[in-house]
Amino acid sequence: MESRSPKAGRRAAARAPRRETPPPPGTPLRIGLIGQKFMGKAHSNAWSQAGRFFDLPRAVELTTIAARDGASLGAFARRFGWKQHTADWRELARDPEIDLVDVGTPNDVHREQALAMLEAGKHVACEKPLAGTLDDARAMRDAARKAGKRARTFVWFNYRRAPAVALAWQLLRENRLGKLVHVRAHYLQGWGGAGTPMSWRFQKKLAGSGAHGDLNAHIVDLARFLTGEEVTTIHGAHSRTFVKRRAVAGTSRTAASDVDDCVSFLASFRGGATAVFEATRLAPGHFNDNHIEVNGEHGSLRFSFEDMNLLEYYDGREPRRLQGWKRIQCTFGDAHPYAAHWWPEGHVLGYEHGFVNQAADIVRALSGAKPEVPLPDFEDAYETQRVLEAALVSAANRTAIPLSQIP
User: Span 6-155: which CATH code?
Assistant: First the structure.
């Protein structure tokens, strides 16, 4: 295991070519990652597993991981198979051997890190939400536009990659539900009560928002992804902080928790469908309850991540004596997205597989192949960020907010 010096990185950057065309076939995709905590583990596992379970057009190499905690980083790098590690994330931008940088850090530093990588000609995969603020997200979108095809962008809305969600996307593309009329989505967790100590997730300057950016970001993305439509209006929203102070771990002190604990809002889509979204981390008994239902003139689809291998489908055009919810177990390799790359039918997938599926699709996309279902980029994720911002503006002003007012 090696830790490169900044000086070595600068010398390497001086001879780094600016990539304008795809690399020759067979060239490995060399990954750099920033972050070694929750998402660092999830992303490290994803990149290491993608080539083992998917027949990819390019091999994946875990080149360098960067993180602030240098004392623990070496052990982390060895455990997850990273060749090199560094406490200076800027080395990744300077390293000509790295093709893609994966940003798995808190929301407040997404902008600085992503812009540095795009300027260096690196492809960027970024955690969600795109940024802590709309201004930061807009700057990231603009930088991605400027980079064009030279440096592509991706965002880790990993729930798109659950086979059941990907199947729902396919069924909606087949117009199984007819004209869409209603979307209802909630994302409920219970870990954020008064006994949970302070972390960056409860500080607005670092997270941007609380349950809203953390959880509503996912269900807004799922709603936009599944329906293929954009939100046009937020009709009303409500935001509340219940836990105002939290213990600082390892001390007798407390600190202010200034992010939302619960946010709900009503919306309309361009095609006329109405929608309701709600998110909280104060729902005891709900562990990772990411749920979405889409209702149309001919039927309905619903998905809950706590039973992630199932898609429920109701076909209102069947004879009345046969009508009822159908529970589809999405594990058949010859019928369901991604399933063929994993286990025999009936052998279910888990949380980590969505990340692996997305890593594989990113490699495909960077090799000129088609991903299983569409990948979100900075442009796409910015549209989700606009919806989140409009909901916060609506809650603050107690009024409807057209998305046209959110640039």
Answer: 3.40.50.720
